[in-house]
Design a protein that fits this description.
disordered N terminus, Cytochrome Bc1 Complex, Chain D, domain 2, 358 residues, globular, mainly alpha, 2 strands
Protein backbone atom coordinates (compact mmCIF):
# COMPACT_ATOMS: atom_id res chain seq x y z
CA UNK A 1 0.00 0.00 0.00
CA UNK A 2 2.83 2.38 0.89
CA UNK A 3 4.23 1.94 -2.67
CA UNK A 4 0.90 2.98 -4.16
CA UNK A 5 0.82 6.07 -1.94
CA UNK A 6 4.40 6.90 -2.88
CA UNK A 7 3.61 6.50 -6.60
CA UNK A 8 0.59 8.79 -6.34
CA UNK A 9 2.68 11.37 -4.47
CA UNK A 10 5.37 11.34 -7.16
CA UNK A 11 2.75 11.54 -9.91
CA UNK A 12 1.13 14.56 -8.26
CA UNK A 13 4.52 16.18 -7.91
CA UNK A 14 5.27 15.72 -11.59
CA UNK A 15 1.88 17.07 -12.63
CA UNK A 16 2.38 20.08 -10.39
CA UNK A 17 5.81 20.72 -11.89
CA UNK A 18 4.27 20.89 -15.36
CA UNK A 19 1.52 23.32 -14.39
CA UNK A 20 0.55 26.43 -16.38
CA UNK A 21 3.24 28.53 -14.66
CA UNK A 22 6.00 26.16 -15.78
CA UNK A 23 5.33 25.94 -19.50
CA UNK A 24 8.15 25.25 -21.94
CA UNK A 25 9.83 28.58 -22.75
CA UNK A 26 9.23 30.01 -26.22
CA UNK A 27 12.26 29.33 -28.39
CA UNK A 28 13.93 31.23 -31.22
CA UNK A 29 13.24 29.46 -34.54
CA UNK A 30 15.82 30.38 -37.21
CA UNK A 31 14.64 27.74 -39.71
CA UNK A 32 14.46 29.23 -43.19
CA UNK A 33 11.16 29.43 -45.05
CA UNK A 34 11.04 27.31 -48.21
CA UNK A 35 10.41 29.63 -51.17
CA UNK A 36 9.33 28.32 -54.57
CA UNK A 37 10.45 30.73 -57.29
CA UNK A 38 9.33 28.39 -60.06
CA UNK A 39 10.85 29.57 -63.35
CA UNK A 40 11.57 33.04 -61.95
CA UNK A 41 15.20 34.09 -61.43
CA UNK A 42 16.65 34.27 -57.92
CA UNK A 43 15.45 37.57 -56.41
CA UNK A 44 18.65 38.10 -54.36
CA UNK A 45 16.87 38.59 -51.07
CA UNK A 46 18.54 40.86 -48.49
CA UNK A 47 21.08 38.93 -46.44
CA UNK A 48 19.95 40.67 -43.25
CA UNK A 49 16.35 39.50 -43.58
CA UNK A 50 16.07 36.08 -45.18
CA UNK A 51 12.54 34.72 -44.59
CA UNK A 52 12.25 32.24 -41.72
CA UNK A 53 9.20 30.20 -40.79
CA UNK A 54 8.70 32.20 -37.61
CA UNK A 55 9.39 35.55 -39.27
CA UNK A 56 6.97 34.88 -42.12
CA UNK A 57 4.27 33.83 -39.66
CA UNK A 58 4.81 37.01 -37.66
CA UNK A 59 4.64 39.10 -40.82
CA UNK A 60 1.44 37.36 -41.83
CA UNK A 61 -0.08 38.14 -38.43
CA UNK A 62 0.97 41.80 -38.71
CA UNK A 63 -0.34 42.07 -42.28
CA UNK A 64 -3.81 41.23 -40.94
CA UNK A 65 -3.45 43.06 -37.60
CA UNK A 66 -6.01 45.86 -37.20
CA UNK A 67 -4.37 47.08 -33.96
CA UNK A 68 -1.75 48.75 -36.14
CA UNK A 69 -4.35 51.36 -37.07
CA UNK A 70 -5.47 54.28 -34.94
CA UNK A 71 -8.92 52.93 -34.08
CA UNK A 72 -8.34 49.20 -34.56
CA UNK A 73 -10.50 49.05 -37.67
CA UNK A 74 -7.98 48.62 -40.45
CA UNK A 75 -5.07 46.37 -41.43
CA UNK A 76 -2.74 46.20 -44.42
CA UNK A 77 -5.00 43.46 -45.76
CA UNK A 78 -7.97 45.84 -45.96
CA UNK A 79 -6.40 47.66 -48.91
CA UNK A 80 -4.64 44.58 -50.30
CA UNK A 81 -7.36 41.95 -50.33
CA UNK A 82 -6.45 38.37 -51.14
CA UNK A 83 -9.71 37.85 -53.05
CA UNK A 84 -8.64 40.71 -55.34
CA UNK A 85 -5.11 39.31 -55.67
CA UNK A 86 -3.80 41.65 -52.98
CA UNK A 87 -5.03 44.83 -54.64
CA UNK A 88 -7.84 47.30 -53.94
CA UNK A 89 -10.46 47.51 -56.67
CA UNK A 90 -11.68 50.86 -55.37
CA UNK A 91 -10.26 53.86 -57.21
CA UNK A 92 -8.85 55.13 -53.92
CA UNK A 93 -8.62 53.26 -50.63
CA UNK A 94 -10.56 54.70 -47.68
CA UNK A 95 -8.64 55.17 -44.41
CA UNK A 96 -9.67 55.10 -40.76
CA UNK A 97 -10.82 58.74 -40.91
CA UNK A 98 -13.05 57.88 -43.90
CA UNK A 99 -10.74 59.92 -46.16
CA UNK A 100 -9.72 58.68 -49.62
CA UNK A 101 -6.10 58.09 -50.56
CA UNK A 102 -4.39 60.14 -53.24
CA UNK A 103 -3.38 57.25 -55.51
CA UNK A 104 -4.67 53.83 -56.46
CA UNK A 105 -3.28 51.10 -54.18
CA UNK A 106 -0.70 48.93 -55.93
CA UNK A 107 -0.81 45.11 -55.56
CA UNK A 108 1.79 43.59 -53.23
CA UNK A 109 2.76 40.30 -54.89
CA UNK A 110 6.24 39.59 -56.36
CA UNK A 111 7.77 42.42 -54.34
CA UNK A 112 10.96 40.38 -53.89
CA UNK A 113 11.91 41.36 -57.44
CA UNK A 114 11.28 45.11 -57.09
CA UNK A 115 14.71 46.70 -56.66
CA UNK A 116 13.96 50.30 -57.61
CA UNK A 117 11.76 51.62 -54.83
CA UNK A 118 8.16 50.96 -53.82
CA UNK A 119 4.95 52.98 -54.27
CA UNK A 120 4.05 54.81 -57.47
CA UNK A 121 6.77 57.40 -56.77
CA UNK A 122 9.41 55.04 -55.34
CA UNK A 123 9.62 56.88 -52.03
CA UNK A 124 10.19 53.66 -50.05
CA UNK A 125 13.61 52.14 -50.89
CA UNK A 126 12.81 48.66 -49.54
CA UNK A 127 9.75 46.55 -48.77
CA UNK A 128 10.43 46.99 -45.03
CA UNK A 129 10.16 50.76 -45.51
CA UNK A 130 7.00 50.47 -47.57
CA UNK A 131 5.38 48.31 -44.88
CA UNK A 132 5.56 51.05 -42.23
CA UNK A 133 4.38 54.06 -44.22
CA UNK A 134 0.64 53.18 -44.43
CA UNK A 135 0.56 52.80 -40.64
CA UNK A 136 1.64 56.44 -40.26
CA UNK A 137 -0.22 57.95 -43.21
CA UNK A 138 -3.12 60.19 -42.02
CA UNK A 139 -5.13 59.07 -45.06
CA UNK A 140 -4.61 55.40 -44.26
CA UNK A 141 -4.12 53.81 -40.82
CA UNK A 142 -3.22 57.12 -39.14
CA UNK A 143 -1.27 55.68 -36.21
CA UNK A 144 2.13 56.49 -34.73
CA UNK A 145 4.74 53.76 -34.75
CA UNK A 146 5.23 54.22 -31.00
CA UNK A 147 1.54 53.55 -30.36
CA UNK A 148 1.54 50.56 -32.71
CA UNK A 149 4.53 49.09 -30.88
CA UNK A 150 2.92 49.69 -27.47
CA UNK A 151 -0.25 47.88 -28.51
CA UNK A 152 1.69 44.85 -29.73
CA UNK A 153 3.77 44.74 -26.54
CA UNK A 154 0.57 44.31 -24.54
CA UNK A 155 -0.32 41.10 -26.42
CA UNK A 156 1.46 37.97 -25.19
CA UNK A 157 0.95 36.14 -28.48
CA UNK A 158 2.98 38.84 -30.21
CA UNK A 159 5.69 38.89 -27.56
CA UNK A 160 6.07 35.15 -28.01
CA UNK A 161 6.13 35.37 -31.80
CA UNK A 162 8.81 38.07 -31.75
CA UNK A 163 10.92 35.67 -29.65
CA UNK A 164 10.42 32.93 -32.24
CA UNK A 165 11.24 35.30 -35.10
CA UNK A 166 14.02 37.44 -33.64
CA UNK A 167 15.32 35.66 -30.56
CA UNK A 168 13.84 37.93 -27.88
CA UNK A 169 10.57 39.72 -27.17
CA UNK A 170 11.81 43.21 -28.04
CA UNK A 171 9.17 44.77 -30.28
CA UNK A 172 10.26 47.71 -32.44
CA UNK A 173 9.00 49.46 -35.55
CA UNK A 174 12.03 48.20 -37.46
CA UNK A 175 11.20 44.61 -36.57
CA UNK A 176 7.58 45.12 -37.60
CA UNK A 177 8.82 46.25 -41.02
CA UNK A 178 11.23 43.34 -41.30
CA UNK A 179 8.55 40.77 -40.46
CA UNK A 180 6.05 42.17 -42.95
CA UNK A 181 8.83 42.26 -45.54
CA UNK A 182 9.51 38.57 -44.96
CA UNK A 183 5.84 37.70 -45.40
CA UNK A 184 5.47 39.79 -48.55
CA UNK A 185 8.57 38.16 -50.05
CA UNK A 186 6.66 34.86 -49.95
CA UNK A 187 3.68 36.25 -51.92
CA UNK A 188 4.84 34.94 -55.27
CA UNK A 189 2.56 34.92 -58.31
CA UNK A 190 3.99 32.68 -61.03
CA UNK A 191 1.27 30.18 -61.96
CA UNK A 192 -0.82 31.83 -64.66
CA UNK A 193 -2.08 30.28 -67.87
CA UNK A 194 0.76 32.05 -69.66
CA UNK A 195 3.33 30.47 -67.32
CA UNK A 196 1.86 27.07 -68.05
CA UNK A 197 1.92 27.88 -71.77
CA UNK A 198 5.64 28.61 -71.53
CA UNK A 199 6.13 25.24 -69.82
CA UNK A 200 4.22 23.49 -72.62
CA UNK A 201 1.37 22.52 -70.30
CA UNK A 202 -1.37 24.68 -71.85
CA UNK A 203 -2.28 26.05 -75.27
CA UNK A 204 -3.39 29.60 -75.97
CA UNK A 205 -6.57 30.24 -77.92
CA UNK A 206 -6.25 31.83 -81.35
CA UNK A 207 -7.19 35.22 -79.93
CA UNK A 208 -4.77 34.92 -77.01
CA UNK A 209 -1.97 33.93 -79.37
CA UNK A 210 -2.65 36.88 -81.69
CA UNK A 211 -2.61 39.12 -78.62
CA UNK A 212 0.67 37.60 -77.46
CA UNK A 213 2.30 38.31 -80.82
CA UNK A 214 1.06 41.90 -80.80
CA UNK A 215 2.20 42.40 -77.20
CA UNK A 216 5.79 41.44 -78.01
CA UNK A 217 6.04 43.09 -81.43
CA UNK A 218 7.15 46.62 -82.33
CA UNK A 219 5.00 48.88 -84.45
CA UNK A 220 6.76 49.91 -87.65
CA UNK A 221 4.57 51.87 -90.09
CA UNK A 222 7.40 52.07 -92.66
CA UNK A 223 7.34 48.33 -93.32
CA UNK A 224 3.68 47.85 -92.45
CA UNK A 225 4.43 45.91 -89.24
CA UNK A 226 1.65 46.00 -86.71
CA UNK A 227 2.56 45.80 -83.03
CA UNK A 228 1.48 46.87 -79.58
CA UNK A 229 4.93 47.96 -78.34
CA UNK A 230 3.90 46.70 -74.86
CA UNK A 231 6.99 44.65 -74.07
CA UNK A 232 9.34 47.65 -73.90
CA UNK A 233 7.89 48.68 -70.54
CA UNK A 234 6.15 45.47 -69.49
CA UNK A 235 8.67 42.84 -70.51
CA UNK A 236 10.47 40.12 -68.61
CA UNK A 237 9.17 37.41 -66.32
CA UNK A 238 7.31 39.92 -64.11
CA UNK A 239 5.98 42.08 -66.97
CA UNK A 240 7.56 45.30 -65.72
CA UNK A 241 10.88 47.04 -66.29
CA UNK A 242 10.77 48.33 -62.68
CA UNK A 243 11.37 51.88 -63.94
CA UNK A 244 9.58 55.23 -63.56
CA UNK A 245 8.01 56.52 -66.75
CA UNK A 246 5.57 59.08 -68.10
CA UNK A 247 3.12 57.09 -70.22
CA UNK A 248 1.31 60.01 -71.78
CA UNK A 249 -1.77 60.29 -69.60
CA UNK A 250 -1.63 64.12 -69.65
CA UNK A 251 0.17 66.98 -71.33
CA UNK A 252 2.25 69.39 -69.23
CA UNK A 253 -0.74 71.57 -68.36
CA UNK A 254 -2.54 68.52 -67.00
CA UNK A 255 0.14 67.43 -64.52
CA UNK A 256 -1.88 67.42 -61.29
CA UNK A 257 0.32 64.73 -59.68
CA UNK A 258 4.05 65.18 -60.25
CA UNK A 259 4.88 61.59 -59.32
CA UNK A 260 8.58 60.74 -59.02
CA UNK A 261 9.50 64.44 -59.10
CA UNK A 262 8.14 64.81 -55.55
CA UNK A 263 10.86 62.39 -54.38
CA UNK A 264 13.82 63.42 -56.56
CA UNK A 265 13.06 67.08 -57.36
CA UNK A 266 14.47 66.39 -60.82
CA UNK A 267 12.49 68.16 -63.61
CA UNK A 268 12.73 65.12 -65.91
CA UNK A 269 10.80 63.09 -63.31
CA UNK A 270 7.61 65.15 -63.50
CA UNK A 271 4.59 62.88 -64.03
CA UNK A 272 6.77 59.77 -64.04
CA UNK A 273 5.35 56.81 -62.13
CA UNK A 274 6.52 53.28 -61.41
CA UNK A 275 5.69 50.83 -64.18
CA UNK A 276 3.46 48.18 -62.55
CA UNK A 277 3.56 44.49 -63.27
CA UNK A 278 0.86 43.31 -65.66
CA UNK A 279 0.53 40.01 -63.84
CA UNK A 280 -3.05 39.55 -62.61
CA UNK A 281 -3.97 42.76 -64.38
CA UNK A 282 -7.50 41.61 -65.26
CA UNK A 283 -8.23 41.13 -61.53
CA UNK A 284 -6.74 44.40 -60.30
CA UNK A 285 -8.70 47.33 -61.74
CA UNK A 286 -8.86 50.28 -61.85
CA UNK A 287 -5.73 51.24 -63.74
CA UNK A 288 -3.02 53.94 -63.65
CA UNK A 289 -1.79 55.80 -60.57
CA UNK A 290 -5.08 57.69 -60.30
CA UNK A 291 -7.34 54.79 -61.26
CA UNK A 292 -8.77 56.75 -64.17
CA UNK A 293 -9.39 53.68 -66.35
CA UNK A 294 -11.90 51.08 -65.23
CA UNK A 295 -11.32 48.45 -67.90
CA UNK A 296 -8.49 46.89 -69.87
CA UNK A 297 -10.23 48.04 -73.02
CA UNK A 298 -9.79 51.65 -71.90
CA UNK A 299 -6.12 51.02 -71.16
CA UNK A 300 -5.51 49.54 -74.63
CA UNK A 301 -7.36 52.44 -76.25
CA UNK A 302 -5.16 54.91 -74.37
CA UNK A 303 -1.97 53.36 -75.73
CA UNK A 304 -3.43 52.90 -79.20
CA UNK A 305 -4.77 56.43 -79.75
CA UNK A 306 -4.73 58.45 -76.52
CA UNK A 307 -1.09 59.10 -75.60
CA UNK A 308 -0.51 62.84 -75.04
CA UNK A 309 2.82 64.53 -75.78
CA UNK A 310 4.61 66.30 -72.93
CA UNK A 311 8.08 67.43 -71.89
CA UNK A 312 8.72 64.20 -69.95
CA UNK A 313 6.92 61.66 -72.13
CA UNK A 314 9.12 58.60 -72.49
CA UNK A 315 10.80 58.25 -75.87
CA UNK A 316 9.39 54.76 -76.28
CA UNK A 317 5.90 56.19 -76.63
CA UNK A 318 6.44 58.64 -79.46
CA UNK A 319 5.24 56.05 -81.98
CA UNK A 320 1.94 56.00 -80.10
CA UNK A 321 1.23 59.61 -81.05
CA UNK A 322 1.66 59.18 -84.78
CA UNK A 323 -1.29 60.68 -86.68
CA UNK A 324 -3.13 57.39 -86.41
CA UNK A 325 -1.54 56.02 -83.26
CA UNK A 326 -0.64 52.34 -83.37
CA UNK A 327 -3.28 51.65 -86.05
CA UNK A 328 -4.77 48.73 -84.13
CA UNK A 329 -8.07 47.30 -85.30
CA UNK A 330 -10.93 46.44 -82.97
CA UNK A 331 -9.90 42.79 -83.27
CA UNK A 332 -6.28 43.64 -82.41
CA UNK A 333 -7.40 45.41 -79.26
CA UNK A 334 -9.68 42.55 -78.27
CA UNK A 335 -6.84 40.07 -78.82
CA UNK A 336 -4.50 42.09 -76.60
CA UNK A 337 -7.08 42.05 -73.82
CA UNK A 338 -7.44 38.28 -74.14
CA UNK A 339 -3.69 37.83 -73.86
CA UNK A 340 -3.52 40.05 -70.76
CA UNK A 341 -6.11 37.82 -69.13
CA UNK A 342 -3.75 34.83 -69.49
CA UNK A 343 -1.45 36.54 -66.94
CA UNK A 344 -3.91 35.83 -64.12
CA UNK A 345 -2.77 33.52 -61.31
CA UNK A 346 -6.07 32.59 -59.70
CA UNK A 347 -4.40 30.33 -57.13
CA UNK A 348 -3.11 33.44 -55.38
CA UNK A 349 -6.64 34.34 -54.30
CA UNK A 350 -7.13 31.08 -52.40
CA UNK A 351 -3.64 30.11 -51.21
CA UNK A 352 -4.02 29.47 -47.48
CA UNK A 353 -0.39 30.49 -46.86
CA UNK A 354 -1.43 34.09 -47.45
CA UNK A 355 -4.82 34.04 -45.74
CA UNK A 356 -5.90 35.65 -42.47
CA UNK A 357 -4.26 33.66 -39.64
CA UNK A 358 -6.72 34.79 -36.97
Amino acid sequence: MKYIVLFLFLLATLIGACGPDEQTPVQFDPSLYSLDFGTFPNPNLPADNLPTNAGVQLGRMLFYEKALSKDGSMACADCHLQKDLFSDIRQFSIGVEELPGKRQAMPVFNLAWHKNGLFWDGRAPLVRDQALKPIQDPLEMNETLDNAVAKLKAIKNYRDQFVRAFGDDTITADRIGLAIEQFEFTMISNDSKYDRFLLGEMTLTDSEERGRVLFFREFDPFIGQKGGECFHCHGGFNFTNDQFMNNGLDDDSGFTDLGRFIVTNEPQDKARFKVPSLRNISFTPPYMHDGRFSTLEEVIEHYATGVKPSSTLDDLLFHNIEPDGLQLTAQDKADLVQFLKTLTDENLSSDVRFSNPF
